[in-house]
Amino acid sequence: MVAVIPMLVLYVLLIYLFCREIKKDFKYYLEQDRLADEHVLREIERFLKEKTTE
Question: How far is CA 12 from CA 1, 6, 19, 36, in A?
Fold first, then answer.
């Protein structure tokens, strides 16, 4: 019975760390997606600016 308590604590700790990593990865991928969208919008603005000057 005494060995069950450390196993439960370790199990809860691992679940917490796993969920934390999932949340961090999700934030990272959202930021990367936002930066990619921003890059595409800059390219579109540059293209439109070149079209209007011609």
Answer: 17, 10, 11, 36
Average pLDDT over residues 28-50: 92
pLDDT at 13: 98
- Per-residue tokens: 43: 């390219």
Torsion 17-19-22-28 (CA) sign: negative
Query: What pLDDT does residue 27 have?
Result: 97
Sign of CA dihedral 3, 9, 13, 16: positive
Q: Helix, strand, coil % (nearest 5) of the chain?
A: 95, 0, 5
What pTM did the predictor assign? Answer: 0.65
